Amino acid sequence: MTDLFSKFDPLIQQREGLLATGVTDPFGLVMEKVLSPTVAMCNGRETILLGTYNYMGMTFDPDVIAAGKQALDDFGSGTTGSRVLNGTYAGHKAVEEALKEFYGMDHAMVFSTGYQANLGIISTMAGKGDYIVLDIDSHASIWDGCKMGDAEVVPFKHNDLDAMERRLRRIPEGAGKLVVLEGVYSMLGDIAPLKEMIAVAKAHGAMVLVDEAHSMGFIGPNGRGVAEDQGCLDDVDFVIGTFSKSVGTVGGFCVSNHPKFEILRLVCRPYVFTASLPPSVVATAATSIRKLMHGANKRAHLWENSRTLHKGLTDLGFELGTKEPQSAIISVIMPDLERGAAMWEALLMEGLYVNLARPPATPAGMTLLRCSLCAEHSAEQVQTIIGMFSRAGKAAGILPA
Amino acid sequence: MDRAATADRIADLIAPFNKKGIAITEASTFAGDLEFDSLTVMDFVAAIEDEFDIIISMNQQAEIENYGQLIDAVVKLKG
């Protein structure tokens, strides 16, 4: 018998090798208690959270929590059904209304996770014989959607407008074309030149999908994302987003102005063949989304935090994913997995949690310490964080002692 | 363009990606013999696509394991 697990042997060995050095398992952290959007207890130690994507700090908002509790009382703990059967409650329609208002768009469709939103929309829109042109650094959910739909998949070099244009130009006449881009790329925290790229996509007759998971709530005049910020949201056919970042719960969505959009509810398998979100989740999401429409002050503070941390880490001598802060993600580039894990552990000992990111999630085989800021991080916390990086960087040998 | 001429042009294109100077035959595999990682594959495919003005989609790439198959695929795509 061939052991079907044997394909994982190299990864098992790498993992055992890493843990044999005595380092804490970076992928086995448990939050014992969560005190606020920015602080939790980990290994009995009070820990500042700097790797949560909880950008707007909505997880402990009193109105959001009250809405969730009320929905639990009024509608129960779960729907036990698909959106197209018994799983659409008033709350599901209400959160779709909130999304339509938030984005100023005609249609909104809520999925059970952000992963399923990309999986569902991409696989349903681009099928056999169609072409998907996408950035090579796209999220796993985008790649999986491409594969599931059976379209011809044509990647181009990250954020390379000319490479994208050349591929679009070569697609056979008459074939359906979907260009897939992200507003913020979550590994390095860099943004896409959406205005230029979308103009080129449209000139070649392609429909455009933009994943704005990491921009919702704080990029753009109304927090609608990078496309809004660059003035090209009207040219986007599908915006994909998530409730598990700025919104502060779980779920995914697609908003669109396409007149035929509603048919997707019947043909999109990751929407149809799964249970809908629990009533408490859609209630917290709707409340949070409506509050995010008026979050200008929190947005401004989040950007201050991002700029302060970026400058602080640059001044300390760390190599970062972007020269300037472009989003609420600041990525610190590590020389290799071993030293990255050592630095991650040194930060944890200081009382700071960041994401350790490694291939295949990262581009170019990089090991990253990915920091995501929160509007609820105080200016003092950000200074504390910079001090922690300084000490941990020296302890782990990333910075000169 | 015939197969031999196509093969000559691909030989020029692959040289900068063959960092270890491995002797390439038609049976050489990209992942195994040439040790191409996913990024190298992307850059190499882009170079081929730009040179011949073709698209080799990822679906097609999945069928191409060795150097000879690549030449055949390019010849076919050029028509």
Question: Could you characterize what this model shows?
Answer:
The complex is a heterodimer of chains A (401) and B (79). Chain A is an alpha/beta fold and 401 residues long. Chain A is 40% helix and 18% strand. Chain A has helices spanning 9-20, 62-75, 90-103, 114-125, 140-149, 161-170, 194-203, 226-229, 264-267, 269-272, 279-292, 296-316, 337-350, 379-395; strands spanning 31-36, 39-42, 45-49, 107-111, 131-135, 152-156, 177-182, 184-185, 190-191, 207-211, 238-242, 252-256, 329-334, 352-353, 355-357, 367-372. In chain A, the strands form four sheets. Chain A has a seven-stranded mixed β-sheet, sandwiched between helices. In chain A, strands 1-2-3-14 form a four-stranded mixed β-sheet. In chain A, strands 13-16-15 form a three-stranded antiparallel β-sheet. In chain A, α12 (296-316) runs parallel beside α14 (379-395) and α13 (337-350) crosses α14 (379-395). The model of chain A has no long low-confidence stretch (mean pLDDT 96). By secondary structure, chain B is mainly alpha-helical. Chain B has four helices and no strands. Chain B has helices spanning 3-14, 38-52, 58-61, 67-78. In chain B, α1 packs across α4. Chain B is globular and about 30 Å long. The chains are: A alpha/beta (401), B mainly alpha (79). Chains A and B meet through β6 and α6 of A and α2 and α3 of B.
What separation lies between the terminal Cα atoms of chain B?
9 Å
Strand content of chain A: 15-25%
> What is the count of helical runs of chain B?
4
Estimated radius of gyration of chain B: 11 Å
The mean pLDDT of chain A is 96
Globally, the shape of chain B reads globular
Describe the sheet with the most strands of chain B: none
What is the average per-residue confidence, as pLDDT of chain B, rounded to a whole number?
Answer: 92
**What is the approximate shape of chain A?**
globular
